[in-house]
Amino acid sequence: MRIRNLIYDGSFDGFLSTVFLVFEQRITQVQIQSQLHASDSLFHDNEKVFTDEKKANRVWKGVEKYSNSSGSYHLYYAFLSELPGIENVLLQYLQQLFAYKSDISKDYSNTSVLQVVQTAKKVSREKHRMEAFVRFRLTKDHLYFASVSPDFNVLPLIKKHFTRRYSDQKWLIYDIKRKYGLYYDLKKTEMIQLEFPKSFDFSRTDKDYFTDQELDFQDLWQNYFKSTNIASRKNLKLHTQHVPKRYWKYLSEKQV
């Protein structure tokens, strides 16, 4: 029997809609792929699945019925990892959850449960790092702008934190890797997509886009960082444990 390769739109509701289809049609030989990472195969029958919010909600209500709160968030966080094949691990998890009709989130002897929990923890760590390392810069349009490139798709997870913390100013946090951002307009925070000039360097504070005040602040902050950085006490290994190098290009104090 050929494997049915179900391709969804990449959204969480799209994934849940695909799970609904698997259960509804009792599909046994199946693979789920996001259209963002889908690949053709001679041994699979590709089939596009359309997102259906009602069907997605029915699946999620089932998850909430049989899982505790940590089990639910583990599933969502693991989904946001975007790791290759994570949808199929999540499907296995859900198949067992609905078969047992009881919480399985603590059964670490279960391979799919353990993989989901471990993945969710990685995503959670990335979420907290983004909340700590995001640096805003003031643009000439009086918008506080920050660019990030997280390992996982954590923008949906940091939305509440930044909306609460910076509710008195307009800001945009843009994910360079995934090409979308969170925009707060003093009333609400929404996800948006933008086209940037080809010459735009996300890691630099260009005077064409940012205010003179911001440029002065960047200089001040860099000088302060240099003056407080005692060479004889420098511990690069410890420093990179707390601030991994992949974040350095977005930190004001690391710019030359």
| Share of residues in strands | 5-15%
Shape: elongated
The count of strands amounts to 8
User: Count of helical segments?
Assistant: 8
Helical fraction: 40-55%
Overview of this protein structure:
The protein has a 5-stranded mixed beta sheet with strand order 4-5-6-7-8, covered by helices on one side. The chain has helices at 12-24, 53-66, 69-79, 86-100, 111-133, 155-165, 212-228, 236-242; strands at 3-8, 30-34, 44-48, 137-138, 144-148, 171-175, 180-184, 189-192. With 256 residues, the chain is α/β, with parallel strands linked by helices. It is elongated and about 65 Å long. Helix 3 packs across helix 5, helix 4 crosses helix 5 and helix 5 (111-133) runs parallel beside helix 6 (155-165). It is built from 8 helices and 8 strands; from the N terminus they run E-H-E-E-H-H-H-H-E-E-H-E-E-E-H-H.
In short:
This protein is an alpha/beta fold and 256 residues long. Helices cover 43% and strands 14% of the residues.
Question: Which properties best describe this structure?
Answer:
single chain, 256 residues, alpha/beta, 5-stranded mixed sheet, 3-stranded parallel sheet, 8 helices
Write the layout of secondary structure elements.
Elements (H helix, E strand, L loop, with lengths): L2 E6 L3 H13 L5 E5 L9 E5 L4 H14 L2 H11 L6 H15 L10 H23 L3 E2 L5 E5 L6 H11 L5 E5 L4 E5 L4 E4 L19 H17 L7 H7 L14
Parallel strand pairs: 1-2, 1-3, 5-6
Antiparallel strand pairs: 4-5, 6-7, 7-8
Helix pairs in contact: 1-2, 3-5, 4-5, 5-6
